[in-house]
């Protein structure tokens, strides 16, 4: 049976606490959801975010994406389309950071084969994402101009 285990140690210079031994509380998930005293202790020590996380674990709601490393998530995101990356970036602060990072965009742009070493050397200031979208905007603008010229 799964349990929530809360351990603590009292550290104090006061003589009255020197003989205090570590404590431990083990509760089933069901009992934990009903133990407001333990919930308050966890919130005080670790914060409301961790308390929510523990509640979700007790209820079987585990956010597996939250547990993945940034490098692994960046690798997964690199397989998405541009529109999907833009949508994903709106879901959380963490995904916003990952979806706008040079770590994501540099390999995407280099894999497109459109960036030569000379272009890469010239474009050190803007981020990889900016280079990618600027290039796409220029291509769209040229296509629109060509379409307008062809229709006349």
Your description of this structure?
This protein has 152 residues and is mainly α. It has 2 domains: 3-62, no CATH class; 65-150, Monooxygenase (Up-down Bundle), CATH 1.20.1280. It contains 10 helices and 2 strands, in the order ββαααααααααα. The chain has helices at residues 29-34, 36-46, 48-58, 64-67, 70-77, 82-88, 93-99, 102-112, 117-122, 128-151; strands at 3-8, 23-28. It has a two-stranded antiparallel sheet. α8 packs across α10 (128-151). The mean pLDDT is 82. Residues 62-108 form the F-box domain. This is F-box only protein 36. Pfam families: F-box (PF00646).
| Integer tally of domains | 2
Beta percentage is: 5-15%
Q: What is the count of β-strands?
A: 2
The chain-level structural class is mainly alpha
Instruction: List the total number of helices.
Output: 10
For the biggest sheet, the summary is: 2 strands, antiparallel
Give the end-to-end Cα distance, rounded to a whole number of Å: 75 Å
Report the radius of gyration as a whole number of Å. 26 Å
Question: How does the overall form come out from the CA principal axes?
Answer: elongated
Mean pLDDT, to the nearest integer, reads: 82
What is the name of the CATH architecture of the largest domain? Up-down Bundle
What is the CATH fold-level name of the largest domain? Monooxygenase
Helix content: 55-70%
Low-confidence stretches: none
């Amino acid at each position: 049976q799964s349990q929530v285990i809360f351990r603590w140690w009292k550290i104090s210079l006061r003589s009255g606490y020197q003989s205090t031994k570590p404590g431990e509380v083990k509760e089933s998930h069901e009992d934990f959801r009903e133990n407001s005293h333990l919930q308050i202790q966890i919130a005080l020590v670790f914060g409301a975010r961790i308390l929510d996380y523990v509640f979700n674990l007790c209820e079987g709601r585990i956010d597996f994406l939250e547990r993945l490393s940034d490098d692994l998530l960046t690798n997964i995101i690199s397989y998405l389309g541009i529109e999907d990356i833009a949508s994903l970036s709106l879901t959380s602060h963490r995904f916003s950071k990952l979806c706008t990072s040079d770590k994501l965009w540099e390999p995407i742009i280099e894999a497109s084969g459109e960036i030569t070493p000379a272009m890469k050397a010239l474009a050190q200031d803007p981020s990889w994402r900016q280079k990618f979208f600027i290039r796409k905007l220029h291509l769209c603008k040229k296509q629109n101009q060509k379409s307008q010229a062809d229709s006349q």
